[in-house]
Amino acid sequence: MINNSSPQDWPEPIIRVQSLSQTCIDSIPPRYIKPLNDRPSTNSLFESTNIPIIDLRGLYSIDPNEKASTFKKISEACNEWGFFQIVNHGVSHDLMDLAKETWRQFFHLPMEVKQEYSNSPKTYEGYGSRLGVKKGAILDWSDYYYLHYLPLSLKDYNKWPSLPPSCREVFDEYGKELVKLCGRLMKVLSINLGLEEDYLQSAFGGEDIGACIRVNFYPKCPQPELTLGLSSHSDPGGMTILLPDDEVNGLQVRKNDNWITVKPLRNAFIVNIGDQIQVLSNAIYKSVEHRVLVNSHKERVSLAFFYNPKSDIPIEPAKELVKPETPALYPAMTFDEYRLFIRMRGPCGKSQVESLKSPR
Ligand code: OGA
Ligand code: NI
């Protein structure tokens, strides 16, 4: 099922979507045209629906009712949506703006400079324009930059852009703050699941967790109705903290059979549950499918910070949550084994975590 080696190179020459965006004035190449069923659809019924918005200040309230209701809102959001926005999260708004602006500048550097950081499917680190290595695959309308932040053994400044000059320093600071934020959220999730507050963090490997960032760059697209910026997928890791572009919508989250467009609040982060927390929680928390639409009038930049288990420890449903009436839904698997799938096949809905389900 899962092949154990990643290929060294992409199956076809890489074309930067940013370059296509400049040369394809009226129409996009066939490689980017999605099958009819995958194309963006709008359902005006859900125009005013948004994912839950949660004020994290409530977690530390001296009012016990407010505190309890904040925990409950997070619990319901993880169970019913797999997605929520957080405000008063403790990360400096200036740092958030600076991080986004710095990466936007990177994508506006001359192509020759960016090409020096071109990535390969072996580790995905660097400047990339496709996920998955299937020859002839229909591609997404985006470029990205992918980097490891933790563990320290994988952090390699040579892979980080040297321009803009502040890039390394800004991302170091941003990563530090986001690791802290994730640590706090892991405690809340553990408590909400009825586990010890350190349960999830320990299951992730304690101090040895992994963290990476993918900066997504979605150039303007002349035919946004035919393609996607990022195809439907669930995030394979533990938990994702997304800093969206608050000037351009694009992210859609699946709710039953509908796609809900996220309306980002300024200075908020979007949190979503990844497949590993779905497994650890025995599917009490959901890793939900999402995708990104593009548009013809404005580019979009987003920073996805992935907080992951240590890559070589087995992840399986918490024993406390496995009962006769709720048997374990998933076998144990390490994150190293697990993520090979998305790295080979590219984004494809929730097919992986679902395919792991033990026969009942
Ligand atoms: C991702 C992702 C959403 C976005 O990078 O996994 O889902 O809005 N990004 O860019
Ligand atoms: Ni995602």
From TrEMBL:
<dbReference type="GO" id="GO:1900366">
    <property type="term" value="P:negative regulation of defense response to insect"/>
</dbReference>
<dbReference type="GO" id="GO:2000022">
    <property type="term" value="P:regulation of jasmonic acid mediated signaling pathway"/>
</dbReference>
<keyword id="KW-0611">Plant defense</keyword>
<dbReference type="GO" id="GO:0031418">
    <property type="term" value="F:L-ascorbic acid binding"/>
</dbReference>
<dbReference type="GO" id="GO:1900150">
    <property type="term" value="P:regulation of defense response to fungus"/>
</dbReference>
<keyword id="KW-1184">Jasmonic acid signaling pathway</keyword>
<dbReference type="Pfam" id="PF14226">
    <property type="entry name" value="DIOX_N"/>
</dbReference>
<keyword id="KW-0560">Oxidoreductase</keyword>
<keyword id="KW-0479">Metal-binding</keyword>
<protein>
    <recommendedName>
        <fullName>Fe2OG dioxygenase domain-containing protein</fullName>
    </recommendedName>
</protein>
<dbReference type="GO" id="GO:0046872">
    <property type="term" value="F:metal ion binding"/>
</dbReference>
<feature type="domain" description="Fe2OG dioxygenase">
    <location>
        <begin position="208"/>
        <end position="309"/>
    </location>
</feature>
<dbReference type="GO" id="GO:0120091">
    <property type="term" value="F:jasmonic acid hydrolase"/>
</dbReference>
<comment type="similarity">
    <text>Belongs to the iron/ascorbate-dependent oxidoreductase family.</text>
</comment>
<dbReference type="GO" id="GO:0006952">
    <property type="term" value="P:defense response"/>
</dbReference>
<dbReference type="InterPro" id="IPR026992">
    <property type="entry name" value="DIOX_N"/>
</dbReference>
<dbReference type="InterPro" id="IPR005123">
    <property type="entry name" value="Oxoglu/Fe-dep_dioxygenase_dom"/>
</dbReference>
<dbReference type="GO" id="GO:0051213">
    <property type="term" value="F:dioxygenase activity"/>
</dbReference>
<keyword id="KW-0847">Vitamin C</keyword>
<dbReference type="Pfam" id="PF03171">
    <property type="entry name" value="2OG-FeII_Oxy"/>
</dbReference>
<dbReference type="InterPro" id="IPR044861">
    <property type="entry name" value="IPNS-like_FE2OG_OXY"/>
</dbReference>
<keyword id="KW-0408">Iron</keyword>
<dbReference type="InterPro" id="IPR027443">
    <property type="entry name" value="IPNS-like_sf"/>
</dbReference>
<dbReference type="InterPro" id="IPR050295">
    <property type="entry name" value="Plant_2OG-oxidoreductases"/>
</dbReference>
<keyword id="KW-0223">Dioxygenase</keyword>
